[in-house]
Amino acid sequence: MTKHRVVVVGGGFGGLNATRAMAKAEVDVTIVDRTNHHLFQPLLYQVAAGILPEGLIAPALRSVIKRQKNARAVLAEVRELDVDARVVRARQPDGQDLELPYDTLVVAAGATHSYFGKDELAEFAPGMKTVQDARYLRDAILSKFEMAELTTDPVERAEWLTFVVVGAGPTGVELVGQVAELAHQVLPRDYRSVDTTDARIILLEGAGAVLPPFDPKLQRYTRSQLEKMGVEVRLNTLAVGMDHASITVRSGDSTETIRARTRIWAAGVAASPLAGQLAEKTGAATDRAGRVEVNPDCTLPGHPEIFAIGDMVSLNKLPGVAQPAMQEGTYVGRLILARLAGRGPMMPPFKYFDKGNMATIGHKRAVAEAFGRKVTGLPAYAMWGFIHVLYLIGWGNRLGTMYTWARAMYFSKSRAHRVITFEQGVSAGTARPAPVMRRPEPAPATTPARPT
Amino acid sequence: MTKHRVVVVGGGFGGLNATRAMAKAEVDVTIVDRTNHHLFQPLLYQVAAGILPEGLIAPALRSVIKRQKNARAVLAEVRELDVDARVVRARQPDGQDLELPYDTLVVAAGATHSYFGKDELAEFAPGMKTVQDARYLRDAILSKFEMAELTTDPVERAEWLTFVVVGAGPTGVELVGQVAELAHQVLPRDYRSVDTTDARIILLEGAGAVLPPFDPKLQRYTRSQLEKMGVEVRLNTLAVGMDHASITVRSGDSTETIRARTRIWAAGVAASPLAGQLAEKTGAATDRAGRVEVNPDCTLPGHPEIFAIGDMVSLNKLPGVAQPAMQEGTYVGRLILARLAGRGPMMPPFKYFDKGNMATIGHKRAVAEAFGRKVTGLPAYAMWGFIHVLYLIGWGNRLGTMYTWARAMYFSKSRAHRVITFEQGVSAGTARPAPVMRRPEPAPATTPARPT
After folding, report:
1. What ipTM goes with this model?
2. Closest CA relative to residue B388, chosen from B321, B327, B445, B340
3. pLDDT tens per residue across span B291-311
């Protein structure tokens, strides 16, 4: 008799936790992912900032599950979920097609950054979702200081030294804080002609506060800390146009064009296209961000054998962060086992346990809220570090990360991983030129863009 | 009065040591390099093998010299050495031209891999000289195991699992040893369908022994250790043709085509094109590898203000490894200072102090010869590790490397840095496709290539 076949699409927090929850069961689990690694997304900004090497936060997926003998990992990009034939169709790296039949399907395909329909902005304002994105951003940020050192024209130099981060959610705050630390703490002694502390670092946010989902007290703290670090925080401000050398912003009735060679997109996310595919095939609804609405037990309407979890689903208004994806993954894994044991109907619907929110701003600066308590400063920073190290996979990566942090933050105020290779990146299907290669163009395009 | 201006072309071992030797002098030193990092080349194969993250062996050049106030680093690619006008012309990353006038010029532009005039082989057999090359090789090697896991056809699987390293110098031996360790030690437990120990790993060498410059006893030891590790060593064998799925080799009168999806080029090096430019402009001779012949004090004929050092020069038949470049750099820096103090004529010509040779084969296996003594096995391995860590730049990188080695080799037999991103690499001006994307083509091309 063949075992019950579970196909898990996506090796992120959701898919990996679902797989692990089935570790001791009589099932055959196949995780299919288009990359070979499980990415610990919450620390990806530290790769972009030159603090961590990518390997510590992106262990090979098959290495992560190597002791789980009932699971295997497959490197392929899922193209079609055939819910009638119960087959997942994927494309291998060499272009060949692969069919994965399933008895139960778990779709945990995550989200990508969204330019609100204006994908051409990817060229002007890269986002950060993959290892390649982070390498590209690292190249893009660090190379601007190199260019500023080379030029003798003060106007051009100011352009190279202006950085605009669009979107003040946790990722935007973390990235802008890192750019500020680079310019003010890490790089000044490395440069001879340019004073890197002259850098102008701007954080744009369409809403009226930074870190919109957080408590107002923590929002105020974050804003004031960012300002102390040299960041210009602009609230109620939208990006309405961009080109290679500038960004046009609108606040109320006034419009301003800022000469800036670096824009970073941290404004919006959209569900994986597989969410739309699931919705279409099962009749489920999708929300504005393209997320598919699932039943309280994470199944799709009329398809109890299909689960969808994580950033690509809309369920109880949960935020698109790691915790809901992880908990949904574990829940779904357990529900599959309960069903196989004939106890499926006894399982209650998924219930989220809110462990709180946190975001780091910079060295010894962070905010956290959990169980009704609000924490700021060093205690929040220590908590943030402790929890993130704890959730990393493998003691080797945990120790390596602690060593690298100690080195980067406490001993030498340095960034060890500063290799620039002028990567030609590809993200969300959009080919990108190398970060600094282009000369400025005369007039800004007027492509409207709307940050959150 | 303006200070004496020294321009150093290249931030490798030669250029960096020349710069450091002038640390306390009344000179203005400018190091110009087309990358932003000083690359510790002897450990680059460990990046290709997934052991080390690139940052630990490629610190930012300007960070390395940040305490040396008389030196600055410039990120640009040198195009022309104008020896009459005493100006170095370089291109900035944004395409603008940059002129660097000098009173003294030190050219330490290194070498690249050579396909003996058949640059089209770069597509079929990538080499390893840069960080991007190493990332590309890591992608190329690791992705082949992924492909082998995906295929069900035994012939195709064997093709994915066949690795051919061309050239048995230290780099070739180190790389082939790493492929063998991956296949036999690191990866077996990670895969479900494929047995990675089925991999066929071949080392080709045109000469009659591996590690040609080493003592015959060490050559025999290296060969027998490689064979114990599962490497097929083929001596007196030339690569005479390649395509995307095979390599044709000739040994004596017999020719054989081996189906193999991975070929790695470690066969030849050629001096930087700047060596040819210097030769042309100063009337100096070049050797077969394009290296320029310099005077015993490393100057060019008729140009006492121009020095050339390292892998791009031919001097006393010194090998193209780190030690001669470092010692020449230090010598040249001191000679410049002696001249400024009016003691130039008192300086003797450059004299190489031979500290010996070493190469690592695999875990606890290495060979070393120094001061007439020959060492093999664990003692040579320990020596190799100690010396390489010692020569790394910065205690942060030394400790980080030791931690990573301990983790990779002693505790878990793992490779922490296994991210595959299917990099599109560019090396020696040749654009390369992503490592595994292509399907095999019907017949092998008959491009002849000659390993050393």
Report:
1. 0.91
2. B321
3. 999 999 999 999 999 999 999
